[in-house]
Amino acid sequence: MRNLPSLGGLRGRAPRRVTATPIPIPVPLSAYVVDCAVYVDGKRLPGRWTHTDAVNEVRERGDGFVWIGLHEPDEEQIQGVAETFGLHELAVEDAVHAHQRPKLERYDNTLFMVLKTVKYVQNASPDTANEIVESGEIMVFLGRDFVVTVRHGNHSGLGVVRQVLEDDPEKLKVGPAAVLYSISDHVVDNYLEVTRRIEDDIDQMEAIVFAPRSRVSADQIYLMKREVLELRRAVMPLAVPLRRLAEGYTPLIPEQVRSYFRDVDDHLIEVSDRVTNFDELLTTLVDATLAKITLQQNSDMRKISAWVAIISVPTMVVGVYGMNFENMPELKWKYGYPLVISAVIVACLILYRIFRRNRWL
Questions:
Q1: How far apart are CA 82 and CA 99, in angstroms?
Q2: Is the pLDDT score of 139 beyond 90?
Q3: What is the mean pLDDT of the chain?
Q4: What is the topology of this protein in the membrane according to its UniProt annotation (predicted)?
Q5: Is 114 helix (H, G, I), strand (E, B) or coil?
Q6: CB neighbour list of residue 322: distance below 8 Å, 6 or more residues apart
Q7: In terms of Cα–Cα distance, which of 86, 142, 148 is closest to 112?
Q8: How far from each other are the two terminal CA atoms of the chain, in whole angstroms?
């Protein structure tokens, strides 16, 4: 018979702690899908669709296209969409990790475009703002019969764009290229709105800087300049992709849509000019603020020097009388003390009048 271990040997031992490895909970793709629709002859087909059912419906009909919108999916969730639509792995990686510059790339029969979105952050005053421009991203995969949009950021919703297109079936008949144009136009229109709001802030900041006796920190102007630089990073690189789309970079963009991209490019040029002017104006305001601060410091130093000169008169007199000399006639004189005090006051008043007339005080 096998001897069992004594319980006494286990007495006093701490129980062994078993650490359980957390098991990640899979999140269904539907949690990332904002909307998925099938459009045939410019009209949305009724019903709810998965991406697989939607693309099968379109390819069985041989007409129409699918538009699926995703919001910040992870690598695992977007993989099924990538396999269904044949998206290139490099473009999928860019769409998941975001933080991309605006660009346009072509992978076989698929077009991949990145657009930076911006939102103006309302503040009580431009001289107390911590953030003026909030940025996000929209990635667009464009194929012959599908559009896949991947959004990053909470302000870059495309619900308005989808609704406008659905209210205009003639434009949706053109196909996925019309969706790409509408998204680009929507993003650039937001640029215009943001630049208008920033222009108002800069005008207000300019008025504060050049107002008499106003105190403006150069740090706050530099913050605004940094926010304008963030807007510049979103706007400037987008010019080349829009120009390529307008010039027939890919057959996925028909001729009738290219002229619309030229219009978007014209609006982007207007935004670019505004952003460049903002940058130059803010540089000027920084220089003006630094000059104003320097002038204020010089004024403060003059005031300090003037008061030091005035205070030095009684200090000198007190120092002379503090040396305890005996042969000082006024020490024995009845009116010596009031006369010395009066002389000190008169000297201080004369100095004060001189400095006041020279605007040192």
A1: 20
A2: yes
A3: 83
A4: Multi-pass membrane protein
A5: strand
A6: none
A7: 142
A8: 108
C-alpha 109/C-alpha 89 separation (Å) is 14
pLDDT on residue 15: 47
3-state helix, strand, coil in the chain (%, to 5): 60, 15, 30
Homologous superfamily (CATH) of 295-357 is Magnesium transport protein CorA, transmembrane region (1.20.58.340)
> Which pLDDT value is given to residue 189?
93
> CA-CA distance, 100 to 114, in Å (whole number)?
7
What is the average per-residue pLDDT within 234-240? Answer: 92
Mean pLDDT comparison of 128-137, 268-277, 302-311, highest-scoring range: 268-277
Position 27 confidence tier, pLDDT thresholds 50, 70, 90: very low
Residue 203 confidence (pLDDT): 87
295-357 and 29-193+216-294 share a CATH fold: no
Q: How far apart are CA 12 and CA 1, in angstroms?
A: 27
29-193+216-294: CATH topology is Beta Polymerase; domain 2 (3.30.460)
Nearest to 84, CA basis, from 27, 33, 137: 33
- Contact of 74 with 63, CB cutoff 8 Å: no
Determine contact, residues 51/80, Cβ cutoff 8 Å: yes
Dump pLDDT digits (tens) for 325-334: 777 767 777 7
Cα(257)–Cα(176) distance, integer angstroms? 10
Phi, psi of 135 (to 5 degrees): -110, 155
Amino acid at site 358: N
- Average pLDDT of 202-224? 79
The residue among 104, 119, 121, 130 whose CA lies nearest residue 153 is 119
Question: Closest by alpha carbon to 131, among 145, 115, 118, 141?
Answer: 118
Give the list of residues 6+ apart from residue 52 with CB closer than 8 angstroms, or none.
80, 84
User: Two tokens at 75?
Assistant: 């690598």
Record the tokens describing residue 279, joined without a space: 């940058």
Name the helix (H) or strand (E) containing 195.
helix 176-210
Domain chopping of the chain, boundaries? 29-193+216-294, 295-357
